[in-house]
Design goal:
With about 1350 residues, this protein is mainly α. About 75% of the residues lie in helices and about 0% in strands. Helix 22 (about 395-410) packs antiparallel against helix 23. Keywords: Coiled coil, Repeat, TPR repeat.
């Protein structure tokens, strides 16, 4: 029990739980009724409760025990000294006895006494304890208990030193040497066996070193090895709180309360999480009520504990947490009942009354506290604060003067500085001095806070006071110089720093988030303002203030529809917002944007009647303390907006007298205010609206150089000179005046931009150079100058500027941004090596541990890293460094995955931007995997990209293509359909979907798709070419002409566009008009996009100029005549195209073989066949389309060499392949050639099957109709032959003399002589010298029709 008793008593003493000690000892005294150690600690528990008489009685009976004699005597002296009436004689006697006892005490007695002195506290007692332990260790150097106690005393000394602010460097070095020695001692004890005291000592050492992770590790060992020791869990929760690991605090507190539902520390931790992290006021109040009951039962006379519990929770709840303050007030009232004469409890009571807004009661209580203890400075500060809030400034000033004199001897006080700042602001004196006082107040308060830990730190943090300081900073910012020529407001920037620090410690403080949003709005950083407002809505979904501020942000960003929704949300959550000026202002702005001027007028007239519109509420210096709901606070900016909007609406109705009257009222109302210049500029705009430019110029010219708004007024004047008077000289003179008055980098940049607007690029460059000289180390200035140079296309100067700026600008995020800009410029200029070097340097700097830890939580930094990684991978891909590019992509992906939590609370736009860049990274990584044939990984990465950005069309398209290549048609179709729903005119998705339609033989659906595209964009030539092909194959080519005409009228230059000429040539080719086709395609052949396609078709026209299948058989009337001119032209075109096509283009090579075979010379045909066979061997991984065209060409050559059997094998192989739309021409030609061979062999059924297959996929296949007709004719079935020949004749637009001849001959055999004559006339009209038709057909028909 010795070890257990020791650690339990030590913990209870540390926590100040006197009654817990008594209860613990009583419990064990039931087993050992006369144990002197238990009786002593029971008496010590009475001492902690200040029950000195009872304690003395208990201690008197223990004097007989020799081992306890020194401890008992010391405890009795302590008790006598703290009694209301000190018995000096008894103290003297006891002191003499103590001196004698100390000389004769044994080792156990020394350790016991040392333990007591340690617990009594104070430097003197600590030294006494160290002396006794030293005596023990000199006798028994390996005594484990003594060694542990000695180590603990060393740590205690350091802790006491730090808590009292002793931070001298040399002392700190000595202290840490002692601490290291203590750690070594604990290790030595643990080396001899498990020891809970040593483990707790190690945890305390690491806590002192602020190595909280290791401290948790030690405590976890205690929890595992000594599960009975519940305080270890309490200590763990406290360490987790120091780490701000709120989840761990919550989890540990839950475990504590499961084991001991009345555990005070466990309940304190639960309340801490609820107030500090979760903003659960009602639940916290409920737990506080339970905690008060526990304290009443377990610590019946512990007033200090009530104070320790109430103080931090009251500060965290703030003036908005009334329900919590009501509970903490009960703690203080209980403490005050226990110790009614203690001023500290009265001061705390007054502090909480002040937070509740009961300033008169607080003033009375502060005065009572001052009466109890005239030296209590906190009571005096409280009295002055209440006087200021209640408007009794003179009395407050008098008391402050006295306190200032007193403070000279007492040192600086943060609260005193804050009160002086408030008084200075009240008296409207020296705003800079007021700001300095606020700075001093904050610095002193932070210094006090840093010396505290745990709950005490939150008491010193005092969020409500910090928010008051920030509020005063915001008020001061109104009087700071405004304009683009100055840095952002010091007061607002410092407010930002304070609020960010506050929210780091108290992330669940709604009031701080709201205040942060207001500061960011004042700084015009509307994007950043989203983050705290979203955090508020997470913490308190019913918060109307957040919705109002969100509406203001959206209005300033121009998102009026979303602003209207936020305004409606605010109204639904709290109807009181309808009584605020800001609500009416926002509603009016939304209505004005929607051009609902009558409604806006009603809203603004109602706003003019609201309370506060005729008094300057923000200038009420106590407004922060008087307003419980800050959304109700009307600012001067809101009041001015009412006047300005009202004037604007009057102007819309041409009510210029009313508008003038409104502006005049505003000028009277805000005369002398910092915002007066806004009214001046509005008056200027009104004059411009009336057309009185001279009056507008006169108004703005009256703004003096001493005004904080001189620069905005001068900029507005410059705009008038430029827009209304077109006076470039005066326009530039305004900016030169600004530079003359404020010569800095920002004004020079403004001057440069002004010169750029009037096309004075040389002067602009001089201004930009001057800006660089003014701030050579400012990366943002260097970046702006570089952008300006790039905008003027001075790329050489831009690179020189960037290269000279990079080495000298200050390190930080802005420099990394600059580095990215330079790398991006080099990438665009195709200097990939330098771009890669800069990007590697950028990412190396970001990966530096310190920078990463400090800045990666910034969304901008994270975005920069991702964008830099993306650009670097592009650079390395271009340089063929696939391995390096892949590694960069992996790093970027890890960066995105490892830091997603940093965006918690950010506005959705920030999250969206990061996810979009991440999607680009995943997509590029997927492309790499696709190149490396790792399809599965590519699919996974593309899906990740779509998770990040569902609208990433490139990823969706790539995924659809992969699905299509794998035969997963349904998945492919789903992806394309989704893309087309989002973008109905997405070309690539539409093309894939059309291919799927064609694959399923849904030709009408495909035609409809292209028709819809052309309805939307008549000049979409890719769609037009596809439509021409589809309509031709559907035998509906006559429907194409309206689309051609619409395309010609679509743009003035359409007639000369290569795309339209190609489409016309394609239509002419299908219409059997080779001359017109040649002319149109020749117009398109020089174009990069359409030239290759046009050349290929022209080559096919030249090689088959008569539109006959002359490759596989001789013409009907004899051998085919070789057209040498056509062959030469084909070779010339192919040689032109060779440079445009890829080196191994199969189509180019196949056409060259066709041109070679066109000579019909045996050696040429054999040479071509050898080349085709070589292509087939080499192109083992080629596309199926290329294989089919190659096989078809080989079959053609073999046919020409009369090797019909070999040709037939090639053609049968093609016939067995599944039909694909892309290869339709090749399939059709192969089927026709095979049908021809079967026809010669007399296999009519095979011929019929192949011809019907051709017609199935191309109803305009004239050769198929012709072959069917020929087959019918051979069977003397002339009527059926006529029908087939008529279809073939129609498909050829009645321009093929060969088909015309066959049709006429069939008519002759069928004795339809008149039709014979008509057809013959058409043939002879197209080809007057066509052989045989006149003699063998026409003349015979004429004979039969003559009477």
């Amino acid at each position: 029990m010795g070890e257990e008793l020791h650690v339990m008593v030590k913990y209870y003493v540390q926590m100040g739980y006197g009654h817990h000690i008594q209860t613990y000892c009583k419990h064990h005294l039931l087993k050992c009724p006369r144990d002197p150690t238990l009786l002593f600690w029971h008496a010590y528990g009475l001492l902690l409760e200040e029950a000195y008489v009872e304690a003395l009685k208990c201690l008197e009976s223990l004097k007989q025990y020799r081992e306890l004699e020194v401890a008992v005597l010391a405890a009795m002296i302590y008790a006598h000294q703290h009694c209301k009436v000190v018995d000096e004689d008894q103290v003297h006697i006891l002191s003499q006895c103590l001196e004698l006892a100390e000389k004769n005490i044994n080792e156990k007695g020394l350790l016991f006494a040392a333990t007591l002195y340690w617990h009594l506290g104070g430097h003197g007692n600590l030294q006494k304890a160290q002396e006794f332990v030293g005596r023990v260790l000199r006798v028994q150097p390996q005594y484990a208990h003594a060694k542990c106690l000695h180590a603990w005393l060393g740590l205690e000394g350091i802790s006491m030193s730090h808590s009292q602010g002793e931070q001298e460097k040399h002392a700190t070095d000595v202290e840490w040497n002692i601490a290291e020695s203590s750690l070594q001692t604990f290790d030595e004890v643990l080396a001899r066996g498990s020891n809970i005291d040593a483990l707790l000592g190690r945890a305390s050492f690491y806590e002192l070193k602020q190595d909280y992770a290791k401290a948790l590790g030690e405590l976890n060992q205690v929890i595992v090895l000594h599960s009975w020791f519940l305080p270890a869990l309490c200590q763990k929760a406290r360490i987790a709180m120091l780490m701000q690991d709120w989840d761990l605090v919550q989890e540990t507190a839950h475990v504590i309360l499961q084991k001991d539902p009345s555990n005070i520390e466990g309940m304190r931790m639960r309340v801490q999480v609820m107030l500090c992290f979760e903003n659960k006021m009602s639940e916290a109040a409920s737990v506080l009520a339970d905690m008060l009951k526990s304290i009443e039962q377990l610590e019946t006379r512990n007033a200090n504990l009530c104070l320790q519990v109430a103080q931090p929770f009251a500060r965290l709840a703030g003036r908005g947490g009334i329900i919590v303050l009501q509970k903490t007030l009960m703690f203080i009232e209980r403490a005050q009942r226990l110790k009614p004469k203690e001023a500290v409890f009265a001061v705390e009571l007054a502090d909480q009354q002040f937070l509740l807004g009961d300033y008169k009661a607080a003033l009375s209580t502060y005065k009572m506290a001052a009466g109890l203890n005239e030296l209590n400075m906190e009571a005096m500060y409280g009295i002055i604060q209440c006087l200021l809030v209640l408007g009794e400034v003179k009395e407050a000033e008098q008391q402050l003067e006295f306190l200032v004199e007193v403070s000279v001897s007492m040192g600086k006080s943060g609260r005193l500085s804050y009160l002086l700042a408030q008084l200075t602001w009240w008296k409207q004196q020296e705003h800079h001095h007021c700001r300095d006082l606020l700075d001093e107040s904050y610095d002193v308060q932070m210094g006090m806070m840093r010396s505290k830990k745990g709950f005490e730190m939150y008491t010193e943090l005092n969020p409500d006071r910090l928010l008051g300081i920030v509020h005063l900073y915001i008020c001061l910012s109104r009087y700071e110089c405004k304009g683009p020529h100055v840095e952002k407001s010091y007061s607002l920037q410092h407010s930002l720093h304070i609020l960010e620090h506050l929210l780091t410690s108290v992330p669940g403080l709604v009031a701080a988030h709201l205040m942060l949003a207001r500061v960011l709005i004042h700084l015009d950083d509307f994007e950043a303002a989203h983050q705290p407002l979203q955090s508020v809505l997470v913490l308190d979904p019913a918060n109307a203030s957040a919705q109002l501020l969100l509406a203001k942000v959206y209005v300033n960003q121009g998102n009026f529809a979303i602003a209207k929704q936020s305004l409606e949300q605010a109204l639904s959550k709290d109807f009181i917002v309808r009584e605020t000026v800001v609500y009416h202002v926002l509603q009016a702005q939304i209505l004005v944007n929607c051009l609902q001027f009558e409604e806006a007028l009603k809203v603004l007239e109602a706003a003019m009647c609201l309370p506060g519109m005729r008094q300057v509420t923000i200038d009420s210096k106590s407004s922060y303390f008087n307003c419980k709901k800050h959304m109700e606070m009307t600012t001067d900016a809101d009041r001015i907006m009412v006047f300005l909007l009202l004037a604007e609406v009057h102007v819309q109705f041409n009510h210029f007298p009313e508008a003038t009257k409104t502006i005049q009222e505003a000028m009277n109302e805000f005369s002398g205010c910092p915002e007066e210049v806004q009214v001046v500029i509005a008056n200027c705009d009104l004059a411009l609206g009336r057309g009185d430019v001279d009056a507008a110029v006169a108004i703005l010219s009256q703004v003096s150089q001493g005004s904080n708004y001189y620069v905005p007024a001068k900029v507005a004047l410059a705009d008038i000179y430029m827009k209304h008077q077109h006076d470039k000289a005066r326009f530039s003179k305004c900016y030169m005046d600004i530079v003359q008055l404020f010569p800095n980098s920002k004004t020079y940049l403004m001057l440069g931009e002004a010169f750029m607007r009037i096309d004075e690029s040389e002067q602009a460059m001089k201004a930009y150079v001057a800006a660089s000289k003014e701030s050579p180390q400012d990366a943002s200035v260097a970046s702006q100058v570089g952008h300006a140079l790039v905008a003027t296309h001075n790329y050489g100067k831009a690179m020189e500027h960037y290269e000279s700026a990079l080495p000298i600008v200050e390190d930080g995020l802005a420099k990394l941004d600059l580095c990215y800009d330079v790398a991006d410029l080099y990438f665009k200029l195709k200097n990939y090596e330098r771009a890669e070097e800069l990007l590697n340097k950028l990412l190396a700097n970001v990966e530096d541990g310190c920078f990463l830890q400090e800045n990666l939580k910034s969304t901008k930094t994270l975005m920069l890293c991702l964008r830099a990684s993306l650009l670097l991978s592009k650079v390395q891909n271009i340089q063929r460094k696939q391995g390096s590019a892949t590694q960069v992509m992996l790093n970027a992906r890890d960066l995105h995955n490892n830091y997603p939590l940093e965006l918690h609370g950010h506005h959705s736009d920030a999250i969206r931007d990061q996810k979009h860049v991440a999607a680009d990274i995943y997509f590029q990584f997927a492309q790499e995997c696709e190149v490396q044939k790792d399809v599965q990984k590519a699919i996974a990465l593309l899906n990740e990209a779509l998770k990040c950005n569902p609208a990433h069309s490139a990823a969706s398209l790539t995924l659809a293509k992969i699905h299509l290549s794998r035969g997963e048609v349904t998945d492919c179709e789903q992806k394309c359909s989704a893309l087309l729903r989002a973008d109905p005119f997405n070309e690539e998705a539409g093309e894939i979907l059309v291919n799927l339609m064609l694959h399923r033989e849904l030709y009408d659906s495909a035609i409809l798709h292209f028709q819809q595209i052309l309805e939307h964009n008549p000049n979409h030539y890719t769609a037009l070419a596809q439509l021409i092909q589809l309509l031709w194959r559907a035998a509906r080519s006559e429907e194409v002409e309206p689309y051609i005409q619409r395309a010609e009228k679509g743009t003035p230059t359409a007639s000369s566009h290569a795309g339209l000429n190609f489409c016309k040539g394609l239509l002419a080719c299908y219409s059997n008009n080779p001359c017109e086709a040649h002319q149109m395609l020749n117009n398109a052949r020089a174009d990069l996009e359409w030239g290759k396609k046009a050349i290929f078709i022209m080559v096919e026209i030249y090689l088959n100029i008569d539109n006959e299948l002359g490759w596989e058989e001789s013409n009907l009337d004899g051998p085919t005549v070789v057209n040498e001119d056509a062959i030469r032209a084909a070779h010339k075109l192919l040689s032109e195209n060779r440079d445009l096509e890829p080196p191994r283009s199969t189509r180019q090579a196949v056409l060259e073989c066709y041109a070679t075979m066109a000579t019909r010379q045996k050696h040429d045909i054999e040479s071509a066949l050898m080349r085709l066979q070589k292509i087939a061997r080499e192109d083992t991984i080629g596309l199926e389309k290329e294989k089919i065209s190659n096989m078809l060409a080989m079959a053609t050559g073999l046919t020409m060499l009369k090797q019909v059997a070999k040709a037939k094998n090639q053609l049968r192989a093609i016939d067995r392949m599944p039909f694909k739309w892309d290869d339709a021409d090749a399939f059709e030609r192969a089927w026709l050639m095979l049908a021809n061979i079967h026809m010669q062999a007399g296999k009519q059924e095979a011929v019929e099957e192949l011809c019907k297959k051709c017609i199935k996929y191309n109803k305009a296949c004239s050769k198929a109709w012709e072959l069917l007709g020929l087959m019918m004719e051979k069977n003397h079935m002339y009527t059926e032959a006529i029908n087939f020949y008529k279809n073939a004749w129609k498909c050829q637009k009645q321009r093929s003399p060969a088909i015309g001849y066959r049709l006429a001959f069939a008519y002759l055999k069928d004795k339809q002589y008149i039709k014979v004559i008509c057809v013959c006339h058409k043939v002879l009209q197209a080809c007057p010298h066509y052989p045989k038709i006149r003699k063998e057909v026409l003349d015979k028909a004429r004979v039969h029709v003559r009477p």
